[in-house]
Amino acid sequence: MSEAVDAREDDLQQLLDAQNLDGASHWLSSRKSVQVAEELSRLSTTEMAVTFRLLNKRRALKVFELLDPAHQAELLDALRGDHVGEIFAGLAPDDQVALLDEMPAKVASRLLEGLPPDQRKVTSGLLGYPAESAGRLMVPMPTVLSPESTREEALDKLQQRWRTTQARNLSRSGIAVVAVTDDSRRLLGMINLSELVSAPTGTLMRDLLHQEHHSVSVYEDQEIAARLIQEADLLALPVVDDEGRILGLITVDDAMEVLEAEVTEDAYRAGGAEPLNEPYLTATVFKLAQKRGVWLIVLILAAFLTINVMEVFESTLEAVVVLSVFVPMIIGTGGNAGSQAASSVVRALAVNEVRPKDVWHVVWREVRVGFMLGCFLAVVIFPIISFIYSPRVGLTIGLTIIAICSWACIVGGVLPLVAKKLGVDPAVFSTPVVSTLVDATGLIIYFSVAGIVMADQIAAAGG
């Protein structure tokens, strides 16, 4: 079997460990660019740089574009002056901006100064917009057409523009939609390239305009723009200034990256940790601990509420010791029910299905959902607990489960809406905060129900 075939069946990390650069080169040539980018992200900085140098110039730029900005910055730092400027200049302006945000200020300034004047002007313009705004994400200087242009004139203009942008490297994005504007570049509508190509000869652009089109302000939040692309099934979204003049386009691939980043951020915060803002394997152990430790401190302090509740009802526990057996089950059930509700509402907020003003609709829905869940669980556990302990204990636990599930669903549904209203990330009020709050209040519900159902037994024990 040849060395090339062996390399394809081997692992890139193993080839690098064995210092088999010929085998690594064969491995790279037998994989698609996206697979190479994924494998590079798993390597150490030095190994990443060594492997990257094995790629030919054209393939190297393609792989570099597929890396996330954090790994791009790490790779450029490892390459030092070796083709760094050339690689950076080969990126689209919006990708250059994303990478500059990851680089130290001095390095970013040096990379920006190394660009040709026309590229530097475009990239600097994007850097002038606020972070996380649509302006930072857009592909600038889109081709625009006049409503009076014919099909032939439009195609000729697009061909010329494409050759120019490729020669000057101002944009590497394909043309999927084209903007139609008036003489002042005010947006009139959009035309799909497929419709333009298939239109009869001599067709005017005004006859191809869609009756409805979408656009966002250059200062709009990136997530809102990305959600609009997703919900309206757009190939690209025009970005306009305050007077409606088109400044650029946000493409669907960039929108997907924004949504992925938002989902990642919500996932971290829902689990009680701050986002890493860099790949997991790249982050140091100290940074991982730091991102998780802050929330653990907050949650352990909040757990004192549970301890205080236990102290308040200490006499009840002493009177009916069996109640302490069910404390983990009670608080666990409440926390789980609340977390389920919070996750559902956070998701609904993210896709704009609910808004803070819908709070009473959410409360009414969640209290019914919680009541149904509680009844279902109570029916399951009542006969079991009654058989093992006593019917009175079973009744206490059953009623508590019904009450706590109803309450937990209300808490889990309302807190994300309150957070949104206050301008706080709703994901922060998901699993950790809801669980901690429901734990404490759930114990109050539990011992209150026990005090009613088992009042005579508690009184007898006290006497």
Description:
The chain is of the alpha/beta class and 463 residues long. 65% of the residues lie in helices and 6% in strands. It is built from 24 helices and 7 strands. It has helices at residues 3-9, 12-17, 21-29, 33-40, 45-53, 57-66, 69-79, 84-89, 93-102, 105-113, 117-127, 134-137, 151-168, 193-198, 222-231, 252-270, 285-302, 304-312, 314-319, 327-350, 359-388, 391-422, 431-453, 455-462; strands at residues 139-140, 144-145, 177-181, 187-192, 216-217, 236-240, 246-251. The strands form 2 sheets. A 4-stranded mixed sheet has the order 1-7-6-5. Strand 3 (177-181) and strand 4 (187-192) form a beta hairpin. Helix 7 (69-79) packs across helix 9, helix 9 (93-102) crosses helix 11 (117-127) and helix 21 (359-388) runs antiparallel to helix 22. The model is unreliable at 1-9 and 167-173 (pLDDT under 50).
Sheet having the most strands: 4 strands, mixed
Outline the low-pLDDT stretches: 1-9, 167-173
Shape: elongated
Mean pLDDT: 81
Number of helices: 24
End-to-end separation in angstroms reads 88 Å
Global Rg: 30 Å
Strand order of the largest sheet: 1-7-6-5
Indicate the proportion of strand residues: 5-15%
The helix/strand class is: alpha/beta
- Structure summary, number of beta strands: 7
The helical percent reads 55-70%
List the helices and strands and how they pair.
Layout: H1 3-9, H2 12-17, H3 21-29, H4 33-40, H5 45-53, H6 57-66, H7 69-79, H8 84-89, H9 93-102, H10 105-113, H11 117-127, H12 134-137, E1 139-140, E2 144-145, H13 151-168, E3 177-181, E4 187-192, H14 193-198, E5 216-217, H15 222-231, E6 236-240, E7 246-251, H16 252-270, H17 285-302, H18 304-312, H19 314-319, H20 327-350, H21 359-388, H22 391-422, H23 431-453, H24 455-462
Helix pairs in contact: 1-3, 4-6, 5-7, 7-9, 9-10, 9-11, 15-16, 18-23, 20-22, 20-23, 21-22, 22-23
